[in-house]
Amino acid sequence: MDLHLLSQLNEAREDRRAAILVTDLDSGAQRLVRRGEEPSADPLATELARRFRSGKSGLIEAANGQRLFLTVSVPPPRLVIIGAVHISQALVPMATMSGFDVTVIDPRTAFATEERFPGTALCADWPEDVLATRPLDAYTALAALTHDPKIDDFPLQAALAAGCFYVGALGSRKTHGKRAERLAEAGVSAADLARIDAPIGADIGAASPAEIAVAVLANVIAALRKEPEAGS
Description:
Rossmann fold, 6-stranded parallel sheet, 4-stranded antiparallel sheet, XdhC family protein
């Protein structure tokens, strides 16, 4: 492998950026494609997008008969949960079993305790302080679950600005309407506001904290793996 490409691939991994190494098995030629930098005219554009979503490497045959191997490097998906609430207690083990690196952030020390979240990456600090040293990125999902604007609003803005693949917030449509007004006043665009999954989670009639956790995780996984619908 070309040392320059290897250096670029390692740099992408360190920065939690997805990249695909395309190797022509006949000629040995290689190129590196970083997510977000792939040209729309790339003949492999559709396949690259699919591989970035699936995270799976593999052999393909191009339209011109080339045999290409795609080595896919994507960062492990993260789920950042704002609020050490009952829904979070159910969501953490579900998301962990599904392969997510999970972090729970809540400045309310009565809620953010080791007893309530054993073995969990738990931050009993304000989200703005935590995210200053652990920034969000495109392979992170954020679920805001506190119902408290003082805690939820900042990480929602940060998640939208960082291009998180999923951004969701707990609350009724009325609550979200007020939230959207606050975020709009703070400078969040209408397009970004439309990205927020609110009321949070898949519409399955969830009632209990565990059921709501299932609904949230369903939409997180769908956002990570499914191809976006046309026009969305």
